[in-house]
Amino acid sequence: KAAVMDDQITQEEKVRRLSALIELQNEITMEINQSEVGATVNVLVEGWSQRDSSRLSGLSDTNKTVNFTVPQGGTRSAESLIGKIVPVRTNASGLTGFIGEFVEPAE
């Protein structure tokens, strides 16, 4: 077992290596998310955003959080979208998800 082998590394080195790995993964995730800005994604609407009460919040089919607005004057109210899968155009990205805008389906 590795835990009982000679030449163990220090706790500080373990923390340094883990921090470097997390930083690299965060950079990769940000690049991937940024490349998806402008795309339309399907979102299962869970309810109102906890951070911004003017936006709805849900999860994309890739399990990323999407907070989005519903334009005024559309045919659907924001309340009516809760519990539904709806198209959302992503406008900005972050480490764990996106900010976007509801896309009114063409009829």
Please tell me about this protein's structure:
- The protein is of the alpha+beta class.
- The chain is 27% helix and 32% strand.
- It has helices at residues 11-35, 78-81; strands spanning 40-48, 56-60, 65-69, 85-93, 97-102.
- A five-stranded mixed beta barrel has the order 1-2-3-5-4.
- The chain is elongated.
- The mean pLDDT is 93.
Name the descriptors.
elongated; single chain; alpha+beta; five-stranded mixed beta barrel; 107 residues
User: What is the arithmetic mean of pLDDT?
Assistant: 93
Q: What is the helix fraction of residues, given as a range?
A: 25-40%
Radius of gyration: 20 Å
Q: How much of the sequence is in beta strands?
A: 25-35%
Give me the count of strands: 5
Unreliable stretches (pLDDT < 50, length at least 5) are: none
Physical arrangement of strands within the biggest beta sheet: 1-2-3-5-4
What is the makeup of the main sheet? Answer: 5 strands, mixed, barrel
- Compute the separation of the termini in Å: 63 Å
Structural class by sheet pairing and helices: alpha+beta
User: Which descriptor suits the 3D outline?
Assistant: elongated
Q: How do the strands and helices of this protein lay out in sequence?
A:
Layout lengths: L10 H25 L4 E9 L7 E5 L4 E5 L8 H4 L3 E9 L3 E6 L5
Summarize the structure in short.
The protein is α+β, with helices and mostly antiparallel strands and about 110 residues long.
